[in-house]
Every structure is written in C-alpha cells, then in structure tokens.
Amino acid sequence: MSGGQEPRMLEIESRPSTHDPVMIKQNDTYYLFCTGGNIPIWTSTNMVEWTREGTVFETLPEWVKEELPRTEEAWAPDISYFNGRYHLYYSLSSFGVNESAIGLAVNRTLDPKSPDYKWEDRGMVIRSRPEETDFNAIDPNIIVIDEDNVWLSWGSFWGGIMIRKIDPATGKASKEDASTYAIASRPRELEPRTPPTEGAIEAPFIIQRDGYFYLFASYDFCCRGVNSTYNIRVGRSKNITGPYLDKEGISMNDGGGSMLLQATTPNWKGPGHEAIFREDGQDYLVFHAYAGNNGRVRLHISTLVWEKGWPRAALLP
Predict the structure, then answer these.
(1) Taking a C-beta distance cutoff of 8 angstroms, is the pair 237, 243 a contact?
(2) d(Cα 237, Cα 75) in Å, to the nearest integer?
(3) Which of 202, 246, 274, 283 is an active site residue?
(4) CATH tag, 22-313
(5) Percent helix, strand and coil across the chain, each rounded to 5?
(6) Beta strands 40-44; 29-33: pairing state
(7) CB atoms within 10 A of CB 82
(8) For 244, phi and psi rounded to 5 degrees?
(9) Identified catalytic residue from 20, 78, 139, 283
C-alpha cells in the first residue's frame, strides 16, 4: 500500500494479551506466536477475531533446564518458513541479564489437525554469557533472502542488535560464515557488561523491499505497564549487514533510527516488539502496547503505507 492512502489500525475484537507477537499464514489461517510459558499460539481467519490454540511446547526442552536453570518460560518467538519446514526461534533468559540463549523448533505444518503436526526441538542456536559476550541472545528474527541465503538477527540492550548467517539445512549458525555483525546500538556511558539501564534497543525485524533491507527495532523500555516508553524505529541499508541509516543519514549503530510509532494519546502506552507480516503486496505492523487505564498488554495490527521509500503506520487511537 502506498501513494495517497492512509494506514489504518485493525479493529481487533477482545484484544488478545500478547507480548512480543509474530504472525504467519498457512493456507487460510493466520497463526500468531507470543511470549509466555511454553509459547502460546493464537489463530484467526481475518486478523480481527482470535482464538487461543494451545502452546508450542508442553514443557520446555530438557536442554534448557540444564543450560539455563533459572529460565522459567520462553520469550519473544519468531516464525518463518524455509527448507520445507516452519522454523520457530525462541528466547530463553531471565529479566535484566544476558545469561541467555536462542533455541529452535521446527514443524512441517502449523495445522494441529494435520497428521504431520509435531514440533521438533533442535536445541540451541546462539548463546550469550555475562563477562563473555557484549550482546544478549534473545529476540530472534529470521530473514530469508533466498533458499540459500538466510540470516538471523537478535539482541536486547548491551551491545545492541547483531546478525549472522544461518545454514538453511540445519537452521543453526553457518560454519562457512562465522562472523557476527553489529547492525544497531545506542550510546552507553556505563561499562559494556553492566546491567541494562541504558542503551535500550531490542527486538529487530528485517524485511527486504525495493532494493533495500529495512531494520525495525524497539527503543526504550518495555514491560512497565502504563509507564512503558517503548517505541518503534526504522533504518535501511543496501546490504543485509548494514550500515542501516535513518532518514537523516544517521547510522543505527550510532543511535540513529527514524520514528515509526510511539504513544501519542493517553489510551495506549509503549508500542513495541514489532513484527512485519506481508500478504498480497500489503505490509502489516504487528506489535503490542499497554492500555493506558490499567497497563494490560494487548495485540495491535496496523497496515503500513510506503512513501518515498519509508514506511508509515497508523497512530494508536
């Protein structure tokens, strides 16, 4: 959608309580995955009416208990399709630390009624450790450029947003290109490995459009109810590994990022942890925000309009 049209917010009925939503479609059904417990699944046929459909896991995989014994639930999943399977990457951590990991589960189908429906956990993909890595291995996002060119971005606070190449056959980190590239960060005055009280950037999501890669990210603070200051910004690059520049030409590695969506009324606070869903030439911004009257988190979806090479979202009501 572009050129003279206005973006709009979908009027979602009985808004689901969804932190960190991400959406994909199989056949006539939209599937939404989000933070919490063993990764809740919601379904819809119209993006407006949603039904809860269980979880990805019955219990977290055994390797999680051994590797990260403090972790009680999975966060911030990402869903994509390549190499004949749906790939669900998920985050494992504890709030405010970078003792974290990204795991992977795969499935041939998302339809729970299909005989092929079975989530197969493939274990750990990325790991971060205090005093060892200046990044936080949560908030994964996959971009499939083509069947042989798949990349995983991730990051939250610390050194910011990272990206590295994925082996499409395994869904794990590529052994041919073992480089990790830093693509977005915010200035920090504290020592790099101190707890995250600044440098608030996380939740990357990358899409490709008209010769550019667009990096969306959430800035400032999530998860504080009515006091949440989350907002969504964007930059673009000709190369998947950056540099990603905003409208003013400032690199997102230098704290840049053009504002896409922020709270502008008392009704909703802290819009963020965005995902982009694409269908029939239309792009949708999928995100959560907090109700201004009680601080409860709710699902929101806006169409995106593209103007002069940049996206524009509808304002929150």
Answers:
(1) yes
(2) 28
(3) 202
(4) 2.115.10.20
(5) 5, 45, 50
(6) antiparallel
(7) 18
(8) -95, 120
(9) 20
Contact 221, 186 (CB under 8 A): no
Instruction: Calculate the alpha carbon distances from 164 to 110, 147, 317 in Å.
Output: 26, 16, 37
CB count within 10 Å of CB 126 equals 24
146 catalytic residue (yes or no): no
Q: How many CB atoms lie within 10 A of CB 180?
A: 17
pLDDT digits (tens, 9 = 90+) for 67-78: 999 898 999 999
CA–CA distance from 274 to each of 62, 115, 234, 289 (Å)? 29, 32, 11, 10
Q: Tens digits of per-residue pLDDT, 259-289?
A: 999 999 999 999 999 999 999 999 999 999 9
Q: Using an 8 Å Cβ cutoff, are 174 and 153 in contact? A: no
Under DSSP, the state recorded for 316 is P
Of 234, 219, 200, 226, the closest CA to residue 313 belongs to 234
Residue spans of the domains in the chain: they are 22-313
Report d(CA 158, CA 136) in Å as an integer. 7
Give the 3-state secondary structure of residue 115.
coil
For 81: left if phi > 0, alpha if psi spans -120 to 50, otherwise beta; the answer is: beta
* 146 sits in which H/E element: strand 141-146
pLDDT digits (tens, 9 = 90+) for 87-120: 999 999 977 788 899 999 999 999 999 999 999 9
116 is catalytic: no
Using CA atoms of 195, 154, 90, 229 in order, give the dihedral in degrees to the nearest 10.
60
Beta strand pairing status for 201-209 and 181-184? unpaired
End-to-end CA distance of the chain: 21
Q: Is the pLDDT assigned to residue 193 strictly greater than 90? A: no
The answer to whether the CB of 53 falls within 8 A of the CB of 44 is no
Cis amide bond preceding 243, omega within 30: yes
Structure tokens at 90: 């998920």
